[in-house]
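Supplementary Methods. Inverse-folding protocol.

Structures were first reduced to a discrete structure-token string of length 747. This string, shown here, constituted the complete conditioning input.
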């Protein structure tokens, strides 16, 4: 098993630490040059994705970690007020989904992350001895699913509090695993029961994802938590008593009395529901939360139970029995106050009406008080959250150093309360959106127009934003006007940039909109093309008079009256993306990846015909619709980012293309303000040059390139790159779960 050292973001496969240089290197075939450093920041939205877990360190005040389903892990040194990403060095999406994490109770610097986004991809255990500043990576023989069913369950990963070189991990489909060398090597437990834990997903869920479309009809959920009973052991010797929970409605709670070698079912345990979390109290009781399903997409039933191991007694302490008013729901998480074993909190899960709830008990679950019915909410950090109720409340933790302080996670971020005990006297609890620095959106579209706001974005799950200030969540939240769930495409007219169009998804109605004031206000188009299914891609002519829309599962159609009437574009197949020429309002282009042919229209998108150009066929290469782009201010100037086939350039409207030979792979190409003394826009490329994957800039139309990111700033997967037409050197790009990043040269 290979261990890889990550030092300041650099990976040395030989296990040696390497020196990190802050300067980027220009790549131009025969010469190298030094560039100024880049400073990278998030465009502030304020979360947006599912925070699947939060974890206070039991031995260091204010130290807390958070994990996400697609955006890596974070650290806070002020009890969750501000967050720092600690996995931005990860390249590609394999390790961006965090299945579980664990801290060493006896070492305030050590943290482990179980990293693996899908069961079909690679997985690794990441370990850090300095709170996530540097990492060791150990690839493992078992699979993970950080963005699969039951992803908030846990924690699957556990460190022995008495002998910290011992770790256990409960996998989804490969059983229970043990490490005796700080996670470097792993051995499968031979005696843990083999149980079918597969969950069949609803059709809607298994065909839609922020990271693409997958067909996981059944997902294994597996062993969802492993817990050491610290009271059973002695310092320096392995803890003998462990518990493990398995996501099944059958026998699901097991105990080991010999350090995890052998396991037996706990007697008289409740059946018919799946456990998802367990919490130990200092008086020896164990509290478990349950749901009929593993979640998060559905949870139709649930309960909370208390187990006294000394008496072998089980007690149903469910605060509110499901269903209520014909609505069934489950329980997502449970936590116990480290200072008072009688104080606990639990969250409901899937209770959409009137809302999910946090219940608190001060007597071990005999009585409960709902905290959110009369709660006061502070939305100032992220105004868009004001119309979103907390949901997918999959993790909750009471601060071990402050009984007044609690954090719970949702499908769009973290809420924190610092007056928890006021509930004892009937007062309202106050909740703040505790997400400063924590960004987990999946951007689907980015534009930077030459006037107005510097950036507008389309995102998965939370629609779209206009950013007049990149460093603050927009004061008025999402776009004014019609709201979509996803905004899938967004563009502006080449010679009239205040006119913009976008497509989206959502329930009913028309799924495309137009703005004539630079994205300040939006109105729905007049109708949808016949046979369309919303969403898809959209283009608008250089003068803003012709709109071309390719809805999902439909051929492109064009309209010259803002969507009141649509006509099919001649010569184009369903699903093909169309772009507009940046100057000539009559010209549109499309690339057929299956045939490698460029199609062009010179009559306002009425009909398209193949040009003479022959390009590589990249069947299936449609990374969120990115590929063909038109250079601003130049008629017929096209750039094609074509995956592993590289980058191609045309100056004659697609009649011929020149391959940029040095570029070995291209995901996205964008344009920005020309460099001083230059006329042609700067190019920004997400791709690969001379075997190096990264983000590159060219100021001479692709003849030479300079890498501008570094190994410390890789953000999973970079896509949707665009420069700023008003600020030389500024670049914006989308990530696979770390939100929108922008970079400026450090002067």
């Amino acid at each position: 098993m290979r261990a890889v050292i990550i030092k300041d973001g650099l990976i040395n496969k030989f296990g040696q630490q390497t020196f990190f240089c802050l300067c980027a290197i220009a790549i131009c075939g025969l010469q190298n040059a030094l560039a100024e450093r880049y400073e990278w920041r998030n465009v502030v939205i304020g979360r947006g994705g599912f925070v699947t877990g939060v974890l206070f360190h039991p031995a260091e005040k204010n130290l807390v970690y958070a994990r996400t389903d697609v955006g890596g892990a974070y650290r806070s040194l002020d009890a969750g007020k501000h967050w720092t990403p600690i996995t931005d060095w990860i390249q590609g999406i394999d390790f961006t989904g965090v299945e579980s994490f664990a801290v060493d109770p006896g070492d305030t610097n050590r943290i482990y992350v179980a990293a693996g986004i899908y069961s079909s991809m690679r997985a690794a255990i990441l370990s850090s001895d300095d709170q996530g500043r540097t990492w060791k990576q150990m690839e493992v023989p078992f699979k993970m699913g950080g963005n699969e069913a039951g992803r908030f369950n846990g924690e699957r990963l556990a460190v022995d509090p008495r002998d910290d070189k011992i770790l256990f991990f409960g996998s989804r489909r490969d059983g229970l695993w043990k490490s005796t060398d700080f996670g470097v090597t792993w051995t499968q437990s031979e005696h843990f029961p083999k149980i079918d834990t597969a969950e069949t997903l609803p059709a809607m869920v298994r065909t839609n994802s922020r990271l693409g479309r997958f067909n996981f009809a059944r997902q294994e959920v597996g062993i969802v938590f492993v817990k050491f009973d610290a009271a059973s052991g002695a310092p320096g010797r392995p803890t003998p008593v462990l518990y493990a929970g398995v996501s099944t409605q059958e026998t699901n709670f097991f105990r080991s009395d010999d350090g995890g070698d052998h396991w037996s079912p706990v007697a008289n345990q409740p059946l018919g529901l799946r456990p998802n979390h367990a919490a130990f109290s200092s008086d020896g009781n164990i509290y478990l939360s349950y749901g009929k399903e593993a979640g998060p997409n559905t949870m139709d039933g649930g309960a909370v139970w208390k187990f006294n191991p000394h008496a072998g007694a089980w007690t149903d302490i469910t605060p509110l029995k499901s269903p209520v008013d014909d609505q069934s729901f489950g329980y997502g998480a449970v936590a116990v106050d480290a200072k008072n074993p009688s104080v606990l909190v639990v969250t409901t899960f899937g209770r959409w009406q009137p809302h999910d709830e946090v219940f608190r008990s001060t007597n071990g679950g005999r009585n409960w008080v709902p905290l959110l019915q009369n709660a006061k909410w502070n939305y100032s950090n992220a105004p868009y959250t004001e119309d979103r109720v907390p949901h997918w409340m999959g993790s909750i933790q009471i601060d071990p150093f402050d009984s007044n302080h609690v954090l719970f996670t949702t499908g769009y971020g973290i809420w924190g309360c610092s007056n928890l005990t006021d509930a004892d006297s009937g007062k309202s609890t106050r909740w703040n959106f505790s997400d400063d620095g924590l960004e987990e959106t999946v951007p689907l579209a980015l534009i930077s127009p030459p006037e107005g706001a510097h950036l507008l974005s389309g995102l998965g799950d939370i629609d779209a934003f206009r950013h007049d200030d990149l460093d603050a969540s927009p004061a008025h939240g999402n776009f004014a006007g019609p709201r979509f769930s996803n905004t899938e495409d967004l563009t502006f007219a080449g010679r009239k940039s205040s006119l913009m169009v976008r497509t989206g998804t959502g329930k009913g109605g028309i799924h495309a909109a137009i703005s004539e004031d630079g994205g300040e206000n939006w109105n729905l188009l007049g109708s949808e093309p016949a046979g369309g299914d919303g969403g898809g891609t959209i283009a608008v002519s250089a003068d803003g008079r012709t709109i071309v829309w390719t809805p999902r599962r439909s051929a492109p159609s064009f309209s010259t009256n803002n969507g009141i009437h649509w006509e099919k574009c001649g010569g184009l197949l369903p699903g093909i993306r169309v772009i507009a020429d940046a100057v000539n309002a009559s010209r549109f282009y499309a690339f057929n990846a299956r045939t490698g042919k460029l199609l062009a229209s010179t009559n306002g998108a009425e009909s398209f015909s193949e040009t003479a150009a022959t390009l590589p066929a990249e069947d299936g290469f449609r990374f969120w619709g990115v590929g063909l782009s038109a250079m601003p201010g130049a008629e017929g100037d096209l750039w094609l980012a074509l995956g592993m086939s590289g980058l191609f350039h045309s100056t004659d409207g697609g009649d011929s293309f020149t391959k940029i030979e040095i570029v070995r792979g291209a995901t996205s190409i964008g344009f920005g303000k020309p460099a001083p003394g230059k006329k042609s826009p700067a190019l920004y490329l997400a791709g690969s040059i001379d075997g190096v994957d990264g983000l590159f800039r060219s100021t001479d139309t692709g003849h030479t390139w300079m890498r501008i990111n570094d190994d410390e700033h890789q953000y999973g997967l970079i896509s949707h790159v665009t420069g700023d037409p008003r600020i030389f050197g500024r670049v914006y790009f989308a990530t696979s779960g770390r939100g929108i990043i922008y970079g400026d040269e450090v002067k």
